[in-house]
Amino acid sequence: MANELLKATDVSEVFGGLKAVSDFNFHINKGELIGLIGPNGAGKTTAFNLITGVYQPTTGDITFDGKSIVGLKPYQITQRGIARTFQNIRLFAELTVLENVKIAFHFHVKYGLLESVFRVGRYFKEEERIEEEARKLLKIFHLEDKAEELAKNLPYGAQRRLEIARALAAKPKLLLLDEPAAGMNPQETKELMEMIAWIRKEFGLTILLIEHDMSLVMGICERIYVLEYGMIIAQGTPADIKNDPEVIRAYLGGEA
Amino acid sequence: MEFTHQVLQQLVNGISLGSIYALIALGYTMIYGIIKLINFAHGDIYMVGAYIGFYAITQAKLSIVPALLLSFVVTGILGMVVEKLAYKPLRHAPRISVLITAIGVSFFLEYTSMYFVSPTPRTFPAMFGDVAINIGGIVINGQQMLILGITAILMVILTYVVHRTKTGKAMRAASFDTETAQLMGIDSDRIISITFGIGSSLAAVAGVLVGVYYNSIDPLMGIMPGLKAFVAAVLGGIGILPGAVVGGLILGIVEAFVSGFVSSTFRDAAAFAILILVLLFKPTGIFGKNTKEKV
Amino acid sequence: MKYLRKNDCIMLGFAIILFAVLQGLITGRVLSSFWQLNLLIVGINIIMAVSLNLINGYTGQFSLGHAGFMAVGAYVGIVLTTNFHMPFAVALLAGGVAAGFLGFLIGIPTLRLRGDYLAIATLGLGEIIRVVIMNIDYVGGAAGFKGIPHHTNFAWVFFLMLFALFFIKNFVNSNHGRACLAIRENEIAAESMGVNTTKFKVMAFTIGAAFAGVAGGLFAHCFYLVSPNSFTFMQSFNYLIMVVMGGLGSITGSIAGAFVVTFISAALASWPEFRMIIYALALILLMFYRPQGLFGYMEVTNMGILRKIFRKGGRN
Asked: H-type helices in B177-220, by residue range?
């Protein structure tokens, strides 16, 4: 399909003797918002790590925009247009909120080493542009008055939002969100849902998200993949998934 | 035959030297295993041990075995005191702070010793005269026999302590995972203290043995052997006791061969070259397992 | 952004006034030759500390072999001036390039290591450099290299120090520097933000090594004789201590650290054992009571009244 942005074919990942992910086949079309759900330890984060190059698949192929990304380093994959957030927040804790976002513009900045150390050429113009764009992003995520604060001093929910803002600064085509609502209260989760829907439209993004919070996934995702023991056991629209006996069994236990 | 003979002779020398490295490396590896600290002061503890042995023999007129025992005990206590005063308050501090403190402790031990015993090297009294056994032209002298004998005895005792006693089991548990060990009711402060005590005692024995072997000690004698023992520990796989012994022996043998067949000035470089090679090709050492950071 | 340029000009102004005052004290012979030499050493130590800070403080890579790169710069420099009668500037530059190139070569394989392992590897490499120099008869071996022309003066040291400070300050405040900071903070996150972590680690290491080489050249030309024993790992420890004492990740801190350490050493020069004992105790107490160093991550441009002069926060 010409519309496919990301496609994984027969991907598996073996750690030692353990199959963390096997026969993983899935695809995401341009502009879609896809959910990846499953019980703890089902291999969801491993799937993210495979897509972003943190792990290399043992078998199978992953293509992005029609080209294979297997074997690329994580930074190369990011430069191709996939950005992510982390389940266990990984901000640059001792740096300011603004610096956190500026770092993610890294490979979009166009000046060389000599221009930076002698502050000539494109240095000032580029720095001004980054600063402006970074502040714009902070504004979207309601972080503009915290720009000069250290990231580690932000409240939990704000740290989660900053992670998304930072990922967007890398200007991805595909955004991977690893449990963006983890630890948030229902009110915050609701706001986050609206924000995700909004940025998707605003930035023309394709989004893949891992989530435990069913209301969030069912509320905004168009299609859902369900993982269990490293295998996809079901896929379809939220309505399909809700009534899928396999999924009910995986989540509620017992025989179906 | 001349060449084979030389090789075997260097092997004997190398194993003697390597035993000393092994004794120091054991302390390094035990301490690293339990609090993840490269204890730069460990080489200086070894130096203090050598001086205690020296004074026990020359001033108190003790013979070698009581001198070793005295040094073993006193230096062990010194190690525990150092841990209590310098490292314990930094238990939750960043690693670099503890490392810098270790450098500070190292300087402190070196230069307070220098103040008290003067910087001039001291000559260890000869202990064995010309005792030596000759196996087909390969000479093992009295000092080497002493080193090998004492090292072997200590290894046996250490293995027993670590594997058979309650304290030893607690040590192994704490070095595997300090927090969980604590949850299991292990008093980790006490275990850390004991680890420093045992490690320091072993280093002290090595110090006295080196005094006997080379006849000369000085307040800065601990710096190089300290670093090399660390290399030995890394080579064997840091935190792993048999690794420290094997690493020490390999290092001793390589050094003996380099000084015997190449040039003694390259001896120190050989140790570090081994280190770099190990770190590049198997950073976890000969016996180490690979671990991957979870994302 | 214009304020950045303005800040640079203010700092340059201060520096030139400082230079004029100190040069006046030297020319007017107010300072004894002992303190004149120590003034040179302070400047050289500042270059060493700030360049090590780039590697250890800003990029978070624990290097303990800085004296080795200094040795390379020193020996390349003295061979060129003494044996080939090259101009001093050429010798310094060549020393910096040689040390930087070596840093680059060493950095690629070693910087894959983390934390303690990297520390020990760099310490080992520094020692290997020293042992290799000791075994080259052409440069005098262990006995040292004699007959070095006395080229280093206060102006050379001061302006090269200033250059190093501006270079590293600007580097840290650029896209390149931010990549280094990101690596220090969280390597995995940095990589997933599109930062080629290997490239920037090696870049910081190379720049740090190159400045150490230049500092080595300056150092060697202060004396008639230089021996490999001036570049032991104890020296590397010394530079590390300056950086940690001042604050990892603070240029102001490195300047202060270099200053404090050099002057403690100089002031206690007549009591060598006591000097080291006091030094050791100071180090331990500092780690107990102020582990982040004197300045932490702060810069002087962000503090008190000076903040008004320099305007605007951030590292600049």
From this structure: 178-183, 188-214
Helix (H) or strand (E) holding C109: helix C88-110
Read off the tokens for B261. 């067949």
Beta bridge mates, A62: A8
Hey, is A84 helix, strand or coil?
A: strand
User: Which parts of chain C are beta strand (E)?
Assistant: 145-146, 225-226
**CA A46/CA A21 separation, integer angstroms:** 7
CATH of the domain at A245: 3.40.50.300
Q: What are the structure tokens assigned to A96, written together?
A: 């300011």
Hey, are the CB atoms on B269 and C248 less than 8 Å from each other?
no
Question: In Å, how far is B294's CA from the nearest CA of chain A?
Answer: 10
Q: Taking the model in full, what pTM does it have?
A: 0.89
> What are the percentages of helix, strand and coil residues in chain C, rounded to 5?
75, 0, 20
| Interface contact flag, B97 C284, Cβ < 8 Å | no
pLDDT digits 0-9 by tens, C167-201 = 999 999 999 999 999 999 999 999 999 999 999 99
Domain contains A155:
no
- What number of C-beta contacts closer than 8 Å exist between A and B? 4
Q: How far apart are CA B175 and CA B191, in angstroms?
A: 10
Residue A196 located in a structural domain? yes
Could you tell me if residue A132 is inside a domain?
A: no
Residue B87's pLDDT is what?
A: 94
Contact C175 A113 (CB under 8 A): no
Q: How many domains does chain A have?
A: 1
Task: Name the pLDDT band for A256 (thresholds 50, 70, 90).
Answer: very low
Residue A89 falls within a domain, yes or no?
no
Q: pLDDT tens digit string along A120-158?
A: 889 999 999 999 999 999 999 999 999 999 999 999 889
Nearest CA-CA distance, residue B133 and chain C, Å:
36
